[in-house]
Every structure is written in C-alpha cells, then in structure tokens.
Specification:
Mean pLDDT: 90
Distance between the termini: 46 Å
Strand content: 15-25%
Bound molecules: adenosine-5'-diphosphate
Oligomer: single chain
Protein name: histidine kinase
Order of helices and strands: EEHHEHEEHEEHEE
Number of helices: 5
Helix content: 40-55%
Largest sheet: 5 strands, mixed
Organism: Mucilaginibacter pineti
C-alpha cells in the first residue's frame, strides 16, 4: 500500500484523509491479465494452422491408403496423432484463459451419468494397449450439467491414470450414489502422489517433480481445468493416494432426485 498523502492525521491524531492506492495489487492484477490475454491470443492463433494441418494430414492419409502406400499412410497417421496432442494442449491453454477471465461457457442438459462415463471410456480404450479399463458402476441416475465438459474431466482423469501408471495395467472406474451426489472415481496403481503435494496438483501449471525413472509430458493444466469445471457445476474433486502405490481421483456432482 502506498499512501498518496504523507500526513493523513490532524495534530490530535485523528485521521483526516486516508488515500490508499493498492498499487501492488493493481500491478499484479494487470500483469495476470496481460499474461492471460497473451495466452488467449497465442493459443487462438495456434489453433488455425493446426486445424489446417490436421485436415491435410487426413486427406493425405486417405489418398495414400487408396494408393496402397500403407507404410507412408502409417507415418501420416502418426503425424495426425501428434497433431491431436497439439490440439489438446492448445485447447487446455484456451480453457485456462477462459476460466481465469470467467468466460468458460456451460451448456447444461439432463443426462445419464454412467452412460456418459461409459462412452468416454469406450473412446479412450484405443489410446492404450497396455491398460485395461475396468467398469465398476452402480446406478447414479441423471444429472443436469454440461455433458461435454464432464466427459472432458473424465478423459483427463483417465489419461492421467494411464500416463502415471507406466508399469501397471489396471485402471478401475467406479461410480456410486451417495446422498444427493453422484460420485465417480478413477483408480490407478502407478507412481502415486506424495502426501504434501495432494492439494497442489489442482493448481494451474503445477507438476510433481522428482521422478527419476521417468519423465512425463504435460503442462500441469488438466487437473486445474477439471477441478474448476467440477466446482462451477456445483461439485467437488479430491484425490486419495499412497506414493508408489497409486492414486484415486474422484469427483462428486449434485443429482436431482426430486428431494433437493
Ligand atoms: P499434467 O499431467 O499435464 O502434468 P495435470 O494437471 O493433469 O497436468 O496433473 C498435475 C500433476 O499431478 C502431474 O504433473 C502429476 O505430477 C500429478 N498427477 C496427476 N494425475 C496423477 C496420477 N494419476 N498419478 C500420479 N500423479 C498424478
């Protein structure tokens, strides 16, 4: 705090004026806004050429397959997979700028929670050869939320479970109804999270460091975006973990069962 007036007191000690300008806080806010603006513009600009590369890669892949050039088609397919990774990274950056500026839009509908989780799992099964995704569902009923955003959160948790368990093959996705909440948990048996880092993993750009055997790619945004989405939908997200034994990420969303 900087005082605009050097002597804000009368001789008997009463405050006559208190001009406070919270310059530091203003500056910090402005810097944060500039950072968000830059991220927003940069990720938006990156999106256009990447979309175009993807379209060309798909056309080229189809042409090569038709011409019987299977080896070349395979290479283009790998290119396409990398473009998808890039698209996801750019999408995460865009989501963060939207969240930080309060512009993340939600398109709410009624849907069956278990069904959306199942569909998301089916979409992800082909992304791993090593892991088996096991369903342990019990009836949760319908929720009123943004279906795509919820699917995005589940995708994040499952892709993390796959990524952070390179030496084990089981991932369990379970659902249950508890009171007025539908709960989903994604459990892996991988590297786990140290006790003192459990809350930090939900912060933006935070990544647990110090794994000597492995380097894992990522920006440290997935869990921040996921927990913000869940919070905005009236829910909560948490993690249980024992380092070296695995992690279980869960989130709960309110259900409308007619009583609440
Ligand atoms: P990213 O995976 O891109 O780093 P996230 O926000 O998804 O970003 O995760 C933040 C950090 O939390 C990761 O860098 C990792 O250290 C830790 N983490 C997330 N999921 C798991 C998991 N299933 N097992 C162990 N650590 C995890």
């Amino acid at each position: 705090w900087h005082l605009a007036q050097a002597h804000p007191f009368t001789l008997d000690g009463n405050i006559i004026k208190w001009f406070g300008t919270n310059t530091d806080i203003d500056e910090q806010k402005q810097l944060q806004r500039q950072k968000d603006d830059f991220l927003g513009i940069a990720s938006h600009e990156l999106k256009t050429p990447v979309t175009s590369i993807k379209a060309y890669a798909q056309v080229l892949g189809a042409m090569l397959t038709k011409e019987g050039e299977h080896k070349k088609a395979q290479m283009v397919l790998r290119m396409d997979a990398q473009v998808n990774r890039l698209t996801n990274l750019i999408g995460d950056l865009l989501d963060v700028t939207k969240i930080n500026s309060g512009r993340l839009q939600f398109n709410k509908v009624w849907f069956d929670f278990n069904q959306v989780i199942k569909e998301t799992m089916d979409d992800l099964k082909h992304t791993t050869q090593k892991h088996t995704l096991i369903e342990k569902f019990t009836e949760t009923g319908k929720i009123y939320s943004d279906k795509d955003r919820i699917s995005q959160v589940i995708t994040n948790l499952i892709t993390n479970a796959i990524k952070y368990s390179p030496h084990t093959d089981k991932i369990i996705v379970s659902t249950r109804l508890e009171g007025h909440e539908a709960i989903v948990c994604v459990q892996d048996f991988g590297i786990g999270i140290p006790e003192d880092k459990k809350d930090k993993v939900f912060e933006q750009f935070y990544r647990v460091s110090g794994n000597k055997q492995h380097t894992f790619p990522g920006l440290g945004l997935g869990l921040y975006i996921s927990s913000e989405i869940v919070k905005r939908e009236g829910g909560r997200m948490w993690v249980n973990s024992i380092e070296g034994k695995g992690a279980t990420f869960c989130f709960a969303l309110p259900v409308n069962d007619g009583t609440n």
